[in-house]
Structures are given as C-alpha cells and as structure tokens.
Amino acid sequence: MQTAPDTTNPWLQGLNPAQREAVQTLSGPLLVLSGAGTGKTRVLTSRLAELVATGTAKPWNILAVTFTNKAAREMKMRVSSMVGPMAEQVWLGTFHALAARMLRRHADLVGLRSDFTILDMDDQTRLLKQLMEVEGLDAKRWPARQLGGVIQRWKDRGLTPDKVGIADAGDLANGRMRDLYQAYQARLLALNAVDFGDLLLHVLTIFQAHPDVLAEYHNRITHIMVDEYQDTNVAQYLWLRLLTGPDRNLCCVGDDDQSIYGWRGAEVGNILKFESDFPGASIVRLEENYRSTGHILAAASGIIARNESRLGKTLYTSADEGEKLRVNGYWDGSDEARSVSSQIESMQSAGQDLASIAVLVRAGFQTREFEERFIAIGLPYRVVGTKFYERAEIRDALAYLRLIAQPADDLAFERIINVPKRGLGTASLQAIHIQARASGKPLMAAALDLVQSDELRPAARNALTGFCQDIKRWRDAMGGMHHTDLAKMVLDESGYTGMWQADRSPEAEGRLENLTELVTAMQDFDTLQGFLEHISLVMDGDTDSDQGEVTLMTLHAAKGLEFDTVFLPGWEEGIFPSQRTIDESGAIGLEEERRLAYVGITRARRQLYLSFAGSRRIHGQWQSSIPSRFVQELPAETVIEDIAQGLGGGIPFGRAAQAQLAGGGEFGDGWQTERSGGGYGPGWRRMAARRQEPEKPAFVSKASANGFAVGDRVFHQKFGMGNVIHVDGDKLEIAFDKAGHKKVVAGFVSKP
C-alpha cells in the first residue's frame, strides 16, 4: 500500500482519520466501506483531486464511474473547484455512458456502425412483439415485456445467446427463449441498434476477443474509481475487472448494508468478495455519521446487525442522541394516512419546512391513500417515482418527434397512432400492418397508401388521413423553425396537450408540467436529432426536492436522500418485508429487505416515525396483518418507553395499547377507539396474542354473508359500529351508532 505524503491541500482539511486514509491511499486495490451519511461523496471527490494534484495520475488516465448522471455532474463540478479545468479530462460518467463511448470507438468489431441507435425498454418490447409474431408465440401466454426482462437479466450477467444454458432458458417461450434471444440480437444488428444491456455486453465481447484493444485501455487508464459498488451487476463487475490493469489501482466505494437492488440484477456478492478478488487489498471503514442522531443510528445498526452476509461496521455520531423513535399502530391504512397527515400539518404549523419531511413506503400501491389524504386537506406534496423519460406522457411526446424526424420509425408510429384517441383501434392498425407487409413499406408509408383505398371505414379513413397530413405538415415545418417551437406546436395541434388539460385526475397537472419540462430540456441541444440521440443516456430520474412540498416516494427511490423528519408506514408482515421477495429469494431476499429497512431509517436526520396497520386493503381485498418482524428487531432503548416495553416482551405495543384493548386509554396518534368505531378487529387480536395459527380476514367475504344474524354487532369501514336489523342474503340493513340506518353489502362489514 502506497500512501501519499500529508499536505495542506484544501480538500484534506476537515477530514476525519478514516476519510483521510481513504483519500490518501492512492495505489493498489482499495475498498472504502462507506456507511450511510459518512461523507462518501466528499471522499470520492477529494481522492480524485489528490490523484491529480500529487501527479500520481494524469486526469486522462483516471476512469471514475457513477450510477447516475447527476452524481457524475456533481463530482465533476466539485473536482473542478479543487483542481481547475483539468477535471474535464477525467473519464467520468455512468457505466452506460462510458461503455457507449467505448463501443462507438470499436463498433465495427461487433458488426455495428459507430452511429448506432440506443433503444429504450418500450422500443425493445415492440421489437420483441414483432419477433414473437413471426415465431407464432402467444403474447398473452408469454408477454413481450416479461421476455424482454429475461433477456436483460441475461445481459446483466454477461451472457450472450451462445452462453445461455438450457437450465437458464427452461421452458420459457415454449422452450424457444434462446432462439428468440438470438433472433432479437440479430434484428438489433440489422437495425444498427443496441439496448442498454448491449452497451456493456458488446464491450465485454470486444475486450475478451481482442486483447490488443484491452491492452490499449490498460495503457490509457491507470486508476479506476467506482461509486456505489454494492449496486453493480455481473456485467459491470466483469467490465471493471477487465479494465483494471496489472497495477490493480482500483478503488471501490460502497456499502454492503445498502445493497437493495437485487431485483434488477445488483449482486451484493461483488462487494463481499472484494478481498478475495484482490488479495492484499486495503479496507477503510467510514463509520462516523454526519447526518442522523444517535438513537436513529442505533436503531439502524440494531436491525442490520441481524444480517449474516455483511462485512460489518457500526455507525456512530458526535451529535446528540436526539429524539427516540415513535412506533404507532393504526386500525387500517386510511387511519394511518389520516394520522400521518395530521402530524405533518402540526409540524408545518410549528414552522417546519414541508420539504424537510418525507413519507417513504415499501410498495407503490401504498402511496394512493396518502395522496388522496394530502389532496383532501390541501397539503402540498410531490411523488417521486417513475423516471422522467420513462413516463408515459414523455414517451408519447418523444414518439411524435421521432416519427416526424424519421417517418420509417414503426415503433413510434404504433405508439401514437391513436394517442389521443382518433378512432383508430386494433382493426385499423391491423389493416395498416397487412398493407405494410404486402408492400414492403414502413407503417407510415403503408398508411398513406391505405387512405387512398376503401379498406377502412370512412370514419377511420378520415382520421388516418388527418393524422398522416399532420405528420407531413410538421415534418415540412421542421427545417424552418426551432425544434422547441416545433415540439410545442406538435403537442398542441395533435390534441395531446388538450387531452391532459381535459383530464381531471390528480396526476394530469403533473403530466402537463412534465411535457413543459421536456421542451425545456430540448433547449440544451442544437437540433431535434441531437436531442433524440442523447436522451437514451440521461434516464437517471434524479429529481431535486422542491421547497414547500412533502416528499412521497418508495424506499428504493429514497436511497441517497435525507430529510429532517421521515415517516415509514406499512411496517407489516407481507408488505415489509415483502412476502413476494421472501417467497422468491428466501433468506437472501429477507436480508435485502432488512437492508432496505436500514436505508429507510438512515434517511432521517432528526425524527423518525414507524407505523403499521391492523387491516389494509390490498388489490381491492381487506387483509388483517401483524407488525413487521423489523419492528420487533428495533433495540428497545431507541424507542419511546411505553412501546419499548411492548417490544421487549414480544408484544407489538406497550401498556397503553394493552389497556386500550381492555377498554380504555389511548396509544399514540392512531389508537383512539372513536376512529375505529369503538372496537378492535381480528387483526389487533392476532397482533396482541402473536398467534401462529391462521386468522380470519378482518373483513368477511360475500360467501360468508349467512354468518350474520339480526342483532349482530358489526363494524363498517365508513359508517363505524352498528347492529344488524335485517338480513337478505348478502344484503344487510344496519342501524349504525352515528350514521343511522344503512343498507350495505355483507362483504364490507366485520364482526368485532
């Protein structure tokens, strides 16, 4: 291990001993285990500056890899402020951007031209559908998007079609999955196109088949730095291993406790086996946290310590212990959303900025109740989710622009032929396809032929004629106006903007804002074609928090962010940890779920609220539930006293909650009897007793309607408690305590 001499360079000032060691270890393999909030970005940028300033490496000899374009931009900006314009000469970017740069230099070695097109997931799916039709595969039995996901996973593992084993393919696509993969790759070559997986896969092929090319990169790149190493997949791992030269100057920064993307190919094993891959490697642990309070860090450390597959580290802070965690139990998901909203309103009234508050959920469906509640009370919020260029409205707008720029783009034609609706449905599109196959023309040209015939109904023919005329008019205008003005004209004249303006759904306004942002993004490019070629490499979905809005997002999307106050709702078995993940991946999946809990907890700086519900409506069905095992794993000393006693005794709530079950008192913000009609259902009883046997659902099905009789005491989600006064099959008449007499369906009530 070579350590650079200590200097007074400004980027070294203020570093703690572990950070300084990581920055000044400039030779040989180095793994920096950087816990949440321990200054990882500062270490990365300072080390890069140290490499350049000490003359250890020239800027053009350094390869720095990130996972998002935002991270790459931030790193380049910081290093530029430290060492000046030399930072511009560093090879700095995402895996895909750097691989694309390499592939364009050597495209001919894999049968491509350097001007190849990069297809997105939507285009890949359309292409697969076409190949499946030729093969006679049933798209309902084998959805194209599903098979596309299989191909992507193979590429993430570095597998070309000839390397896919029989066991890998199984009976997918009626046993023809490998052949479909081969045909898909051949079609991509014919189109001079690649998908995202190909960017790395083709470069791997080049490096393995052409040692002279690899040697060229070894001579050029002497030092490699990698951010978020725990998130790398097999292909990325192999790419890095091949690029690492004989001096083994590879620095990987990451946190095995924050590896949460196994579902998209990330291999936590890459970071766990670093020492065996690079014997004698230096390991530096960054454990001093600059983000969270002591109790929050202790809670996170207590949970993650239960994982067996980890290198091990313990976060600590010099700051105060802060407030203890609050764990609240609620009757159902709606009660949970109401209480969380009320607490946020109280914080706002006390002067807290809403932008410093986040609600982080495990599954996307959990956001609906929060959104509806936020809208009802007028609480400003934003949802962070789907990546910008993957949003439906952005894809639609881009399809219009692609078709105008290239009328032979069949995938774009298919996407927007009936968006907004023009009366051109499946039958019309089928007729266009038949004409295209018969004439050997693209769909747009076939459509122009078809409108001259009587093959279509008059209404459809008129609609198609208008569409074709619009595309031609916009294409003719393309050369005489700025591409941003063209985009505005297309969105307005096509009726697409009007479609969303007329939409009254909560997300319509956001979609219109996204379309405006798309036009703004185009201003950075000289031509429409330049913009269309670039967007494939900027789909990182990074979004900065807006002031004055609560952030609502999934735990996966929250990685890398931090907030003063964090709410973690839905901590129930089956939801978190996800039952599907456990069913599919067993103990490995459970450990990843626990890492996700660790990530969620460490997003909080000052306050943390966890909650669970006794009943929740999932996919339209009510289900009773018990608190997550992760609630039980919280160290008792980190939780407010009353709840902590319950946790220590193996019961999911403390004395106040038990007293409530006995008939009085209140627990936290969610245990008031008036909220749930004065009683607790089977879900709460199961939680209190921690029974192992299966329980009845919190709400009975229609099939069990004959289980009700006149005089039964029942609970209804909307109307509260009441007594059954008449039974007619599955129809009940109930005298509710507060809502009066109502006729309801038996499936919506339960016996307390």
Question: What does this 3D model show about the protein?
Answer:
- The structure is a single chain.
- The chain has 752 residues and is of the alpha/beta class.
- The chain contains 32 helices and 20 strands.
- The strands form 4 sheets. Strands 9, 10, 11, 12, 13, 14 and 15 form a 7-stranded mixed sheet that branches. A 6-stranded parallel sheet has the order 3-2-6-7-1-8. Strands 19-18-17-16-20 form a 5-stranded antiparallel sheet, with no helix packed on it.
- Strand 14 and strand 15 (621-624) form a beta hairpin.
- Helix 10 packs across helix 11 (211-220), helix 10 packs parallel to helix 12 (234-243) and helix 16 packs across helix 17.
CATH class of the largest domain: Alpha Beta
Strand content: 5-15%
Q: How many domains?
A: 5
Morphology: globular
The percent of residues in helical segments reads 40-55%
Mean pLDDT: 83
Largest sheet: 7 strands, mixed
Total DSSP E strands: 20
SS-based class: alpha/beta
Uncertain segments are 538-546, 648-706
For the record, give the distance between the C-alpha atoms at the N and C termini, rounded to a whole number: 68 Å
